[in-house]
Amino acid sequence: MRDRGLLIVLSGPSGVGKGTVRKALFSKEDVSLHYSISMTTRNPREGEVDGTDYFFKSREVFEQLIEEDKFIEWAEYVGNYYGTPVDYVEQCLAEGKDVFLEIEVQGAIQVKSKFPEGVFIFLMPPSLSELKNRITTRGTETEDLINNRMTVAKEEIEMMDAYDYVVENDQVDLACDRIKAIVQAEHCKRTRLREKYKQMLEAE
């Protein structure tokens, strides 16, 4: 019997570097994870590619998919929708692939209610001042929007108790190493392996 894959959820406040860490993690040769691309109604940022970074859709299309229950989770964040398509994730898990989600905090909480067996990792900034600096240096947000993001970020950080692990993003490579160690440890968990080895004993 093929082992079911892990659902690994990386989340954290806006500006913490989720996308940067995810891209660095997936660039490593010893990482075998399947990235589940999220869908959003926000406009692409410079360098982002449709179907690689996100599926960029109109509000009308997104709302139709909500009606059809085509998302594991979805949320409206700072005026835009974000969601995780369900079919791709379920297929990969059933094939024994580890699926990696990089999503907002609201979405991660929804996923946990549907996939409590998932591995939930909260990416934490070294400090709030560093978080504000990262958001500001993007150069894509107004002062009002930056302040709004900081208010939301503080609320999101208070929700870390819903997660299994906290990884500080002080240096991208170190954050990647910590996430890799978490995934390896989860694959060795007794609760995940017990049924497999119980069947082995019964087959003897």
Automatic annotation (TrEMBL):
Family affiliation: Belongs to the guanylate kinase family.
Record bears the keyword DNA damage: no
Gene3D superfamilies: Guanylate Kinase phosphate binding domain, P-loop containing nucleotide triphosphate hydrolases
Domain of life: Bacteria
Subcellular compartments: Cytoplasm
GO molecular function, one term: GMP kinase activity
GO cellular component entries: cytosol
Organism whose genome encodes this protein: Sutcliffiella horikoshii
Catalytically driven reaction(s): GMP + ATP = GDP + ADP
Domain Guanylate kinase-like, residue spans: 5-184
Protein name: Guanylate kinase
Protein residues bound to ATP: 12-19
UniProt entry keywords in alphabetical sequence: ATP-binding, Cytoplasm, Kinase, Nucleotide-binding, Transferase
